[in-house]
Design goal:
By secondary structure, the chain is an alpha+beta fold. About 25% of the residues lie in helices and about 30% in strands.
């Protein structure tokens, strides 16, 4: 009988231990499932954080770009870099008022210039306690751009490019010391691989107002497109030009008031220097239009 009771006790103990083990296994599986769920949730949150970070960097990059001046589409070089001032770039359609962009010797836009006659200024009347005051409205600056200082000068007799009395307004985004350090670079334009385009103003003052050698730099194998733009609208008469690139057998039609643009295309097949020039010897400023050079590297 004692043996029977002992056997029953052993069986009972086995059942109790088995039940306890079963409960422990279920708890373990629940903990594992909870861990896997938390890990998946963490990975999901981490992915969202990476997405937010990427979006933040994109917005920051866009804001940084907005806080600096850049040349707009259609801007062409009107003058070489002037020491302590900068080179002039603008869309010819917006001349003479501007905006005109001043570019330093490193290719950075450092200022915006406007040229105003009294008749061109837009008067804005603002009431004050002492009576209405008249202000002259300017076009708005890009968002985020900070002006360091403003220079205003009166050109009583005008100057080259705008020969009537007017005010020159320069708004610099660099300091006076940085402006004084601006120095000219060699008059040439470096451009990236593959297809490249230039817009060159042709006038009695030269190619882009450059009297002497005017260089365009390209790479061997590039597809090159040059649009020549008539720039003698300041003259009271028509001053036609014809531009030739003889090494490529290229010759534009007549470039004048009625035909203000001519585009040529070619492939820069070999290294070297290729010259282009105006072939109409009768045009005013002809001697200033003999120094066009395409540098193929």
């Amino acid at each position: 009988m004692k043996k029977v009771f002992a056997l029953v006790a052993v069986v009972a103990a086995i059942l109790v231990v088995g039940t306890a083990c079963g409960v422990a296994q279920e708890d373990y599986e629940a903990v594992v499932a909870e861990r896997d769920s938390a890990q998946a949730e963490f990975q999901s949150v981490e992915g969202e954080l990476q997405s937010v970070k990427a979006e933040f960097q994109s917005v920051k990059s866009e804001l940084d770009t907005m806080k600096s001046l850049t040349l707009p589409e259609g801007a062409v070089q009107l003058s070489p870099v002037i020491p302590g001032h900068g080179g002039h770039w603008a869309n010819p359609a917006q001349m003479p008022l501007g905006p005109i962009y001043l570019v330093d010797g490193k290719g950075e836009v450092v200022a915006i210039e406007y040229m105003y006659t009294k008749d061109m200024m837009q008067e804005v009347s603002i009431p004050t306690p002492e009576g209405p005051e008249v202000f002259m409205a300017l076009q708005p600056l890009p968002v985020g751009v900070t002006i360091d200082h403003v220079d205003v000068s009166l050109a009583l007799h005008g100057h080259e490019g705008f020969e009537v009395p007017h005010w020159d307004l320069h708004m610099y985004v660099i300091t006076q010391e940085e402006k004084a350090a601006i120095q000219p670079q060699q008059q040439e334009v470096a451009l990236p691989q593959e297809k490249v385009s230039f817009r060159v103003v042709v006038s009695h003052d030269g190619f882009n107002d450059t009297q002497g050698e005017f260089r365009l730099k390209v790479q061997k194998g590039q597809e090159v497109e040059i649009t020549f733009i008539y720039g003698d609208n300041d003259l009271s008469y028509n001053n036609p030009h014809v531009i030739a690139i003889r090494a490529f057998g290229i010759r534009t039609g007549i470039l004048d008031q009625e035909n203000p643009e001519a585009t040529v295309r070619f492939t820069a097949s070999d290294t070297g220097e290729i010259r282009f020039r105006c072939t109409l010897g009768m045009c005013e400023g002809h001697d200033n239009l003999l120094g066009g050079i395409i540098v193929i590297q």
